[in-house]
Amino acid sequence: MRLLRSSDASELTAAYVRNRAYLSRWEPVRSDEYYTQAWQAADIANRLVATDAGEGYPFGLFAGDTLVGRFNVAGIVRGPFQSAGLGYWVDSKYSGRGLASAAAQVIVETVRDEIGLHRIEASTLLHNVGSQRVLTKAGFRQIGMAPRYLQIAGKWQDHNLYQVLLHD
């Protein structure tokens, strides 16, 4: 796992195209433009600007040269909050192998040790048991349920909320 680079746009696009149907039940409705290299290149560029500002970190999970997952630490708030959100997915061909759990654990360590935050939060659809296991294995604890929290697959859906505290 490493920070995405501008040169990863082609590989990221291929991963999104390859997983479009698989991810559609877990993500917002995406326009066709989202699945183009131009859109992904612009998104990586914007996220790297956020990285330079200390506001977010886009990580790619790779098997050799093939991108097989994406983990975004985003919405970093400093001051008394010292918190960020985590979003992620793993390629359908690689799911169920423990890669997401291992990557989420690395993210938790990175956010604590290198980025210096106090907490990181994540949410899952109520029926996304696999993602809930990923978070639990990485040290997240459920802190509640938010009704109609995010618009996923074209409708407002309830989400379980999780956090991990990184410092006492």
Automatic annotation (TrEMBL):
Under Gene3D superfamilies, the record lists: 3.40.630.30
Domain N-acetyltransferase spans what residues?
A: 1-167
Q: Which PANTHER family match?
A: [RIBOSOMAL PROTEIN US5]-ALANINE N-ACETYLTRANSFERASE, GNAT FAMILY, PUTATIVE (AFU_ORTHOLOGUE AFUA_3G00765)-RELATED-RELATED
Q: Give the family, as the similarity comment puts it.
A: Belongs to the acetyltransferase family. RimJ subfamily.
Keyword vocabulary terms for this entry: Acyltransferase, Transferase
Gene Ontology CC annotation, any one: cytoplasm
The UniProt GO MF terms for this protein read:
protein-N-terminal-alanine acetyltransferase activity
Q: Which organism is it from?
A: Arthrobacter terrae
**Stored InterPro entries:** Acyl_CoA_acyltransferase, GNAT_dom, N-acetyltransferase
State if Transferase is listed as a keyword. Answer: yes
Q: What lineage does the source organism belong to?
A: Bacteria, Bacillati, Actinomycetota, Actinomycetes, Micrococcales
**Name of the featured protein:** GNAT family N-acetyltransferase
